[in-house]
Write a structure and sequence with these properties.
The chain has ten helices and nine strands. It has a six-stranded parallel sheet with strand order 1-4-3-2-5-6, sandwiched between helices. The protein has a three-stranded antiparallel sheet with strand order 7-8-9, with helices on one face. Strand 8 and strand 9 form a beta hairpin. It folds into two domains: 172 residues, 3-Layer(aba) Sandwich (Rossmann fold); 92 residues, Pantoate-beta-alanine ligase, C-terminal domain (Pantoate--beta-alanine Ligase, Chain: A,domain 2, 2-Layer Sandwich), CATH 3.30.1300.10. It is globular and about 60 Å long. Helix 9 runs antiparallel to helix 10. The N and C termini lie far apart (58 Å). With 283 residues, the protein is an alpha/beta fold.
């Protein structure tokens, strides 16, 4: 069974003698099949002699005012079962005091990309993400960490931070795990009402249509309009943004694979998704 530990001291003791090749899978708990895929990918990457640590920490700093920190789903017993099924050695569920000891501040270098896409709607979110991941890296000292492509902006920003560390931490990116109808798996999907869940597939459907029309030569405005057209089959989905950008969030040139990204709300539940996209080169 995956060993459940809480304090940093318990974590260090549990890691003693396990392996020198450490993989960290940072999560906020409420594990599902998407997390299971991340853990399994990490285990495969480090091999039978590696050690996979899953952190289970709902980080209060990355929730803004009026967000869902208090009601964010938590089920440590179920998390341990999923972590075990996927092959994790340790499930580490630290307290806030373990991750943020004392009053030690951490200066996070500002980045203009903190303020676009997700950051525009959630001020301070990415500074908080970079800080908590840095702190998790400092405690666990992994060789590699696993992140999913669903949170693509997070993946890019964390990857760049990880490269700058001494020694650097490798980042393993795992494709988005999807439900039977294409909806990206998310811990927040449990908030959806039955009516909202029935139409939520329109989000990935719309992205697929955007990718399709791009392959036929559509420009960015036409791509966005096609996405909107698909979403507007229901009045239960409110689009927050649709963007077509390069993988480093700049203008996407034809002939280069970038990303189409979306954020949308169904009632009070906010969902994000993205897919690779290629703008057709003009002949």
């Amino acid at each position: 069974m995956t060993q459940l530990v809480h304090s940093n001291a318990e974590l260090r003791l549990a890691m003693t003698g396990l392996a020198s090749n450490i993989c960290l899978v940072p999560t906020m708990g409420a594990l599902h099949e998407g997390h299971e895929a991340l853990i399994a990918a990490g285990k495969e990457f480090v091999g039978k002699d590696g050690c996979v640590v899953v952190s289970d920490f709902v980080n209060p700093k990355q929730f803004g005012q009026n967000e869902d920190f208090e009601k964010y789903p938590r089920n440590l017993e179920q998390d341990q079962k999923i972590a075990h099924k996927a092959g994790a050695h340790i499930l580490w569920a630290p307290s806030v005091e373990d991750v943020y000891p004392g009053q030690w501040p951490m200066e996070i270098e500002n980045d203009s990309r903190f303020d676009i896409l997700e950051g525009k709607s959630r001020p301070g979110h990415f500074a908080a993400v970079i800080e908590v991941v840095t702190r998790l890296f400092n405690i666990v000292q992994p060789n590699v960490a696993v992140f999913g492509e669903k949170d693509f902006q997070q993946l890019v920003l964390v990857s760049e931070m990880a490269k700058k560390r001494i020694p650097p931490v490798g980042i393993l990116a795992v494709p988005t795990k999807r439900d039977f109808d294409g909806l990206a798996l998310s811990s927040r999907n449990v908030y959806l009402s039955s009516d909202q869940r029935k139409v939520a597939h329109l989000i990935p459907d719309a992205l697929k249509q955007g990718v399709l029309v791009a392959s036929k030569g559509a420009n960015k405005l036409e791509i966005k309009n096609r996405v909107i057209e698909v979403i507007k089959q229901t009045d239960l989905i409110e689009i927050e943004y649709i963007e077509v950008l390069s993988n480093d969030f700049k203008e996407l040139a034809p002939g280069i694979v970038g990303r189409i990204l979306i954020a949308a709300k169904l009632g009070n539940t906010r969902l994000i998704d993205n897919m690779p996209i290629l703008l057709k080169e003009k002949l």
